[in-house]
Write a structure and sequence with these properties.
Elements lengths: L1 E6 L13 E4 L3 E3 L10 H5 L3 E3 L5 H4 L2 H8 L7 E5 L1 H10 L20 E5 L5 E3 L5 E6 L7 E7 L2 E5 L7 H8 L4 E7 L7 H7 L4 H9 L6 E5 L6 H8 L9 E2 L5 E3 L1
Parallel strand pairs: 3-4, 4-5, 5-6, 10-11, 11-12, 12-13
Antiparallel strand pairs: 1-2, 1-14, 2-3, 7-8, 8-9, 9-10
Length: about 260
């Protein structure tokens, strides 16, 4: 199983700044930020599932355009998975005929371009080929989940947007075959109060988080805010725990 980074920035601006999206093999997205826009039409056509961590725009912006672009060319609906609260937000505020058409009823409800599938914390979805997606707890300003991507050879966890979360730490520690941990750190420590208020991590909170991790994955940092990315990375580099976190970048691939 292959996971490719399409976008991992906490903002836009410049060729390398794409918001959050991961491509699992060639048919599954985790979040659908602006990084999805770099895929060619044939690549978009192969996407069968989108697993959404939460409903903030930088993580869902390309779902409406994806469905609109390929819906008529597909024989099956794209399935958008998320917590009940996240899907309620998408239905109410995006696919509401005001911001965007309700593609779960186009061309009709019996044969739609889009289907929503609820996922609860701890629930797993089989996505074919022995691959599984499991929703893990996260803590953000809106209802949010992290995801475990797993197959017979190992697991990857993507935190989505979260602050320090004991339930997420406990869930991570229950994954003995965890090979990669992709965890957000949005702000430098100078903006610690903003990180707390917006329920993101900063380097000092990340250090507390990592010090509680008992398994031994590679740790990669996502969701750096472009204006403060370098100082945040430098501060993360001062971490003296047993991990050596590195910054994600577009095009990076993980083989599980």
């Amino acid at each position: 199983m292959k996971v490719r980074v399409l976008g991992c920035s906490g903002g836009i601006g410049g060729r390398d700044q794409r918001t959050t999206a991961l491509l699992v093999d060639d048919d599954v997205l985790i979040d659908a930020g602006t990084g999805v826009g770099d895929l060619e039409f044939d690549e978009l056509l192969r996407i069968d599932h989108v697993f959404v961590t939460h409903a903030h725009l930088d993580h869902i912006a390309m779902i409406p355009l994806l469905v609109d672009t390929v819906g008529e060319a597909r024989s099956m609906p794209i399935v958008v998975h998320g917590s009940p609260e996240t899907l309620r937000i998408l239905r109410s505020h995006i696919f509401n005929w005001l911001i965007w058409p309700d593609f779960s009823s186009i061309p009709d409800r019996g044969n739609p371009f889009l289907r929503f599938q609820e996922m609860h914390i701890g629930e797993s979805a089989n996505i074919g080929g022995g691959r599984r997606m499991t929703a893990l707890p996260a803590l953000h300003t809106v209802p949010a989940v992290a995801y475990q991507v797993s197959c017979d050879t190992g697991s990857l966890v993507f935190s989505g947007d979260t602050t320090y979360s004991e339930p997420l730490i406990a869930a991570i520690n229950d994954i003995p075959d965890l090979r990669y941990l992709l965890v957000e750190t949005a702000f430098p420590d100078a903006l610690h109060d903003l990180a707390i208020a917006s329920r993101h991590l900063c380097p000092s909170l990340l250090a507390l988080f990592l010090d509680r991790i008992k398994v031994s994955p590679e740790v990669w940092i996502t969701h750096l805010k472009p204006s403060r990315a370098q100082i945040t990375v430098d501060e993360i580099g001062n971490y003296r725990g047993r991990f050596q976190p590195k910054a994600l970048y577009n095009g990076l691939e993980f083989i599980i």
